[in-house]
Specification:
Layout lengths: L1 H8 L5 E3 L6 E2 L23 H6 L6 E6 L5 E13 L7 E13 L6 E10 L9 H25 L9 H24 L20 H13 L18 H14 L1
Antiparallel strand pairs: 1-6, 2-4, 3-4, 4-5, 5-6
Helix pairs in contact: 4-5, 5-6
């Protein structure tokens, strides 16, 4: 909630998930001039999101929005502007979007109704549509995966620095290293990177783990050691065994 208020002060559009137990209120009605005392900051409490979802009088709009992976997904949504209040803090105005959609279990074929709530911190721009809010949130998936991969494989957020300058250097360097690895992998032959499949789930495309392993294997390969001395110490290892060792080290590092 503090993040929403901060983005509103900085005039930044923030799109995020909205808690299902969020306390929502109507805007305060104008106070008569004859009434003394402080003006109310919020109006009457609004029904909870669960109550809105179960209410048959709720008006739902249908639309197709881009979903994770690229395809369009048919969803139903309801939207409105209200105040979000937490005890001890001032109410924050937001534009809420409550979405319900069907999800089919591929194994059992059972269809279940699921719901999710989203918010946008900008309530003054009336050109923002609920479809845009959902599209902005879905597009965050690539950014979240990128930060997760950098944290898991490149040590992002793990260093403990005592200097503000060091904090300003380390994250850009790690993000730049991530981009460099991806660009190098795109130049490697063959065009399709080798995938290490897991037994418990299919993997249709390469993850950053496969990309990093492919770049490491390329840099460690013998064909890149063209400037080595001819009389350097040799280790007689079969080429096939050495390639297997490289693959294990590339994924384990």
């Amino acid at each position: 909630m503090e993040g929403v208020a901060c983005c509103q002060r900085l005039k930044i559009k923030l799109v995020s998930r909205l808690r299902g137990d969020a306390q929502l209120y109507a805007f305060a009605a104008p106070q008569p001039k004859s009434k003394r005392g402080p003006k109310p900051k919020k109006g009457a409490p609004l029904p909870s999101l669960k109550q809105v979802l179960a209410d048959p009088r709720t008006i739902w709009c249908q639309s197709a929005v881009p979903w994770y992976g690229g395809p369009l997904k048919q969803v139903e949504y309801g939207t409105g502007v209200c105040l979000w209040h937490t005890r001890g803090q001032d109410p924050v105005p937001l534009r809420g979007v409550l979405v319900r959609y069907e999800e089919k279990n591929e194994r059992t074929g059972k269809i279940t109704i699921k719901a999710a709530a989203f918010l946008c911190s900008d309530i003054t721009d009336h050109t923002i549509t609920p479809e845009q809010i959902l599209g902005w949130y879905v597009s965050r998936g690539n950014i979240a995966v990128t930060f997760e991969e950098i944290r898991a494989h490149r040590g992002f957020e793990t260093p403990r620095h005592w200097s503000v300058w060091a904090m300003g250097r380390t994250p850009p360097c790690l993000l730049g290293l991530f981009s460099l690895v991806v660009l190098m992998a795109q130049r490697l032959p063959p065009h399709e990177l080798p995938l290490r499949h897991s037994g418990w789930y299919p993997k249709p495309e390469a993850t950053f783990t496969d990309v990093l392993a492919a770049v490491r294997a390329h840099l460690w390969s013998v064909r890149n050691n063209t400037h080595s001395l001819e009389n350097a110490p040799l280790c007689l290892i079969p080429a096939e065994l050495w390639r297997e060792v490289q693959q294990v080290l590339a994924y384990a590092a």
